[in-house]
Amino acid sequence: MQKILDLITEQVTDAFVKAGYEEKFAKVTLSNRPDLCEYQCNGAMAAAKAYRKAPIMIAGDVVALLSQNPMFEEASAVNPGFINLKLSPEFLADYLRRMQEDENLSVEKAANPKRIIIDYGGPNVAKPLHVGHLRSAIIGESIKRMGRFLGHEMIGDVHLGDWGLQMGLIIVELKRRKPKLVYFDETYTGEYPEEAPFTIGELEEIYPAASAYSKDHPEYKEEAMQATYLLQHGHRGYQAILKHIMNVSVADLKKNYENLNVTFDLWKGESDAQPYIPAMVDYMKKNGYAYEDQGALVVDVKEETDTKEVPPCMILKSDGASLYTTTDLATIVQRMEDYKPDEILYVVDKRQEMHFIQVFRCARKTKLVGDDTKLTFLGFGTMNGKDGKPFKTREGGVMRLESLLTSINEEMYRKIMDNHEIDPDEARETAKLVGLSAIKYGDLSNQASKDYIFDIDRFTSFEGNTGPYILYTIVRIKSILHKYQEAGKSLEGVKIQAADKMSEKDLMLELSRFNSVMENAFEEIAPHKICSYIYDLANVFNRFYHETKILTEEDSTKQASYIALLLLTRDVLECCIDVLGFSAPERM
Ligand code: ARG
């Protein structure tokens, strides 16, 4: 459906032209004085210069025409030359009725759908998923859903950190603890066991132990590096261990992401890109892009306009080993080969920005991607604790994602049980939904690039700009709808009628903005814009609710219209939270 602002602009443009002014002056915006009008046009001020006429006279000419137009209840020219507009309630009701019938709630599918690979999550295998990966998962999931809702082909790739020293460390530590394992018998030629020689719990303990130990034991670290090398060069036993690590770790990751309502289309990792490296390196050398500098192989990526230094992109270290940049470049090669995407979007901590500047420039310069493929880096800020420092547990360690979720769910459960009588099992389920809304909304309502303070008390509050407040509003609507049905009335065929009071019209105006908010949020990769929209929508709804006797309304047409408005509000809110990656319970 056409956006309401565009429909209004069409009429205003028409009036400008009919009154003898150029259409470029007919720019309409949402009013910045909602107390005076709903939409406004300031074009008469700009036109004044061009036509050497007082702006108020131009505004007057345009308004004279707009006043005849059934789209507007009121069009007025206000000094020095503003054109203030109020929509006719009939026009607005008609727009919302069409919105209600539209299967996409007025949001148009992209005319030219794009294929976009979104690289998010980025957990490191065998290391516990910690809150540092939380933001990537939450923000990435929401962008993926937004894109899909708008009709784009979104391919989510978790891009596992499954390549590197951590594997070697696990192998040597495992060898130290259980030297008898068949994987370490160099003469063994048979099949390796199906069952992993460790659980996820052990695995998560092994890695930090090995990592800490290696810090002050150089010979141990050397051994781990050697094991990594052997692993990467086909050592059978080590590869069998790697398989176990992957299986155990990925199963655990999937469970964690499931709890976050996050899913990936691809479970590729850094290791999948390795086979592409040799040919890529050859190609870069042959075409003169890469050159040797103190033994290392590099590609220059600095540009004249740089204000800060952008070091050369290192492709191979002097010992021939590849790096994080190499892997990301090879992943681009792989993605281009497999998918030919229109865009690759990376949702990664903003502290990695320089890495991506180098990778993107290098990929462009060496033509790994063509001009028709966009590379985008969405760098997000740090999640801080109340002390303003990166979020830690009370003991000072990095908080594991699982314990974070558990503590939020507990808090929610307690609140729900305190609030009213409810079956404990249902309360548990509800607590999960509300807890997730608290975490996700708490994160997504901030502009992604900014740091934010993770404040459990604030995020779990049922009041204010929080996830639980949004859910509470949805549940309130659902409860009214239930009661309406319990009174023997049907939700089928209820129709929105023209508003006859302010709070009702405000709600309708807010609803009518949905398509433009959604489009704009995706264009700017800004989920926080959806949050601020639903917060406004929930607020206007609640104002309407407090001023209106819905269930006791005697005029049944009027009542049915309220109910229809509630249905649309519920649908828009639920659609938005679905895009944000959480959902509402029936009761809470
Ligand atoms: N595994 C990385 C980390 O934990 C994040 C990966 C981000 N994605 C990428 N293509 N580099 O920091």
UniProtKB/TrEMBL annotation:
Q: What are its GO biological-process terms?
A: arginyl-tRNA aminoacylation
Q: Does the keyword ATP-binding apply?
A: yes
UniProt keywords, alphabetically: Aminoacyl-tRNA synthetase, ATP-binding, Cytoplasm, Ligase, Nucleotide-binding, Protein biosynthesis
Q: Which reaction does it catalyse?
A: tRNA(Arg) + L-arginine + ATP = L-arginyl-tRNA(Arg) + AMP + diphosphate
Query: Which PROSITE patterns does the annotation name?
Result: AA_TRNA_LIGASE_I
Concerning SUPFAM superfamilies, the annotation shows: Anticodon-binding domain of a subclass of class I aminoacyl-tRNA synthetases, Arginyl-tRNA synthetase (ArgRS), N-terminal 'additional' domain, Nucleotidylyl transferase
Quick one: a GO cellular component term?
cytoplasm
Annotated Arginyl tRNA synthetase N-terminal domain ranges read 2-87
The cross-references to InterPro entries, in alphabetical order and at most eight, read:
aa-tRNA-synth_I_CS (IPR001412), Arg-tRNA-ligase (IPR001278), Arg-tRNA-synth_N (IPR005148), Arg-tRNA-synth_N_sf (IPR036695), ArgRS_core (IPR035684), DALR_anticod-bd (IPR008909), Rossmann-like_a/b/a_fold (IPR014729), tRNAsynth_Ia_anticodon-bd (IPR009080)
Which one of the record's GO molecular function terms can you name?
A: ATP binding
List its EC numbers. 6.1.1.19
Q: Which domain of life is it from?
A: Bacteria
Q: Which PANTHER family match?
A: ARGININE--TRNA LIGASE, CYTOPLASMIC, ARGINYL-TRNA SYNTHETASE
Protein family membership: Belongs to the class-I aminoacyl-tRNA synthetase family.
Q: What is this protein called?
A: Arginine--tRNA ligase
The source organism is Candidatus Limivivens merdigallinarum
